[in-house]
């Protein structure tokens, strides 16, 4: 059989079903050829989308000019345009044309995602790009998969499977496909090259690949960050301008030598890290038992200090204090307080907070001193081994507010609030606030993500307390090397004689996300209180 399943001839496209006429009929395929793909057309700056499908079938005997199989098979036929399959642009055509084709496809995917149009994503072997770079055709997913799967696992992976992440969905799935296309266009190979689907999925899960920054010299930093974040399922945007104007820097011999040495060191570290991670995965049952024992031990310890473990409530708090309690819970990874101050509709946010808490605890179990702390606590404690997760520069309606605030404990039975700002409060009453803050996340390979978040917070007075029932978010993320911030922090602390406030003032000259002096004061008090929690009483 021919190894090329898609053919373009004039304004017609043919897809080899890889089935004989009898098999085609018995499989009921005649009723499936109308499955929809999607045609994207660029008119000026605007993308137009329309459904597309194959129209009829034809025998390979009538297509002898390019169907050279000895066995007769059924081809699907449809209207198309002059062009090439994206995999052909990536493999055999000029680099300039390859970049144009990939840029067009990624831009179409961006526009498609923004338009909320439905599309089942397909790999490079199922995407057609016109010669004039104005149209993109995404072939029907099931039909192209059936055709390509008959080529064998290796060819299927090269043409299709290695461009998709079966675990991701929605925007993250689109970004992964874009990143895989960009990586292939620049590097000449796919990032996750395992031919076996199961082995490839494991590599994707573990991010077992050579990042573009260690594979090709001189790539724009925005493109590097895009591919790294897209493969990791993190928030990112396709760097349209940088990729369309791609021009790799030519390295000097010394630069190339340094680049190769650093890449080799990185890959060795990564291999060791992934090997350890997979070993832990194999031993997951034993680890889960250990974690369960650890959690049980913590539960017992906490039960001995009942005053510290009793849950908080928003009862007795104003609507503003409820907002402070919720965002303080985010800052401190206090899952119970976050759940107590928010409705079930925000359960997904609380679950993500719980996952971060568990990840941080697990990391600190296997790496001594690798605790996960808020940014202001990180400044105060001066422990560079710590990771950061939490909030800084928190404001509500433009006014600085607290990020270490906790509501009263339930056992204290606080009275319900009856009025606010001189007005009586009634069940069902609503309030809205605009909050703004920076949120830190350093759980990565020397990567610090600092996002500016602007959120509209909606509260409702339910029965006898305020509760947050909706949060609308705008987010703008920036990425930094954590090691560079650590170095600047250490230098500033030394220069300022260990004065954390003076140190923060120095760092603010370069970073606008450094916590405020009030947040640092609150952090000092918090660290002091925490140090007293598990102090063993002195013998009398």
Automatic annotation (TrEMBL):
TM region positions: 285-308
The keyword Membrane appears for this protein: yes
The keyword Transmembrane belongs to this UniProt entry's keyword annotation: yes
This protein's UniProt keywords: Membrane, Transmembrane, Transmembrane helix
UniProt-recorded name of the protein: Uncharacterized protein
């Amino acid at each position: 059989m021919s190894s090329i399943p898609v053919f373009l001839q004039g304004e017609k496209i043919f897809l080899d079903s890889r089935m004989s006429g009898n098999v085609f009929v018995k499989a009921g395929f005649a009723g499936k050829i109308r499955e929809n793909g999607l045609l994207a057309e660029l008119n000026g700056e605007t993308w137009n989308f329309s459904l597309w499908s194959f129209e009829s079938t034809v025998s390979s005997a009538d297509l002898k000019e390019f169907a050279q199989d000895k066995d007769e098979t059924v081809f699907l036929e449809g209207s198309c345009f002059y062009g090439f399959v994206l995999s052909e642009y990536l493999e055999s055509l000029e680099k300039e044309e390859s970049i144009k084709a990939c840029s067009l496809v990624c831009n179409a995917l961006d526009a498609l995602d923004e338009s909320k149009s439905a599309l089942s994503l397909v790999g490079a072997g199922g995407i057609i790009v016109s010669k004039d770079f104005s149209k993109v055709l995404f072939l029907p997913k099931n039909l192209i998969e059936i055709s390509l799967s008959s080529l064998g696992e290796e060819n299927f992976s090269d043409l299709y499977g290695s461009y998709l992440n079966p675990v991701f969905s929605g925007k993250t799935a689109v970004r992964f496909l874009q990143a895989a296309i960009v990586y292939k266009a620049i590097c000449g190979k796919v990032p996750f090259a395992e031919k076996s689907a199961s082995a490839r999925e494991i590599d994707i899960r573990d991010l077992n690949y050579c990042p573009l920054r260690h594979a090709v010299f001189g790539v724009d930093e925005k493109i590097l960050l895009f591919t790294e974040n897209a493969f990791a399922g993190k928030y990112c945007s396709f760097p349209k301008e940088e990729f369309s104007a791609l021009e790799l820097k030519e390295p000097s011999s010394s630069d190339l030598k340094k680049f190769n040495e650093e890449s080799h060191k990185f890959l060795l570290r990564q291999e060791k890290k992934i090997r350890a991670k997979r070993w832990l995965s194999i031993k997951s049952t034993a680890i889960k038992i250990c974690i369960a024992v650890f959690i049980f031990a913590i539960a017992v310890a906490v039960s001995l200090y009942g005053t510290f473990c009793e849950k908080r409530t928003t009862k007795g708090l104003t609507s503003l204090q409820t907002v402070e309690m919720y965002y303080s819970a985010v800052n401190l990874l206090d899952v119970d307080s976050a759940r107590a101050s928010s409705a079930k509709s925000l359960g997904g946010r609380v679950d993500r907070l719980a996952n971060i808490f568990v990840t941080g605890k697990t990391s600190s179990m296997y790496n001594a001193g690798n605790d996960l702390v808020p940014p202001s606590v990180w400044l105060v404690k001066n422990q560079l081994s710590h990771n950061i997760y939490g909030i800084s520069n928190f404001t509500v309606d433009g006014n600085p507010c607290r990020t270490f605030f906790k509501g009263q404990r339930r056992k204290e039975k606080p009275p319900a609030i009856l009025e606010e700002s001189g007005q009586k409060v009634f069940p069902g009453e609503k309030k809205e606030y605009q909050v703004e803050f920076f949120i830190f996340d350093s759980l990565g390979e020397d990567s610090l993500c600092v996002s500016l978040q602007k959120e509209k917070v909606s509260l409702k007075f339910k029965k006898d307390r305020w509760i947050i029932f909706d949060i609308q978010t705008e987010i703008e993320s920036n990425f930094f090397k954590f090691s560079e911030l650590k170095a600047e922090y250490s230098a500033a602390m030394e220069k300022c004689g260990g004065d954390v406030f003076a140190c923060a003032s120095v760092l603010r000259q370069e970073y606008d996300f450094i916590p405020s002096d009030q947040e640092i004061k609150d952090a000092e008090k918090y660290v002091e209180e925490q140090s007293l929690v598990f102090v063993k009483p002195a013998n009398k």
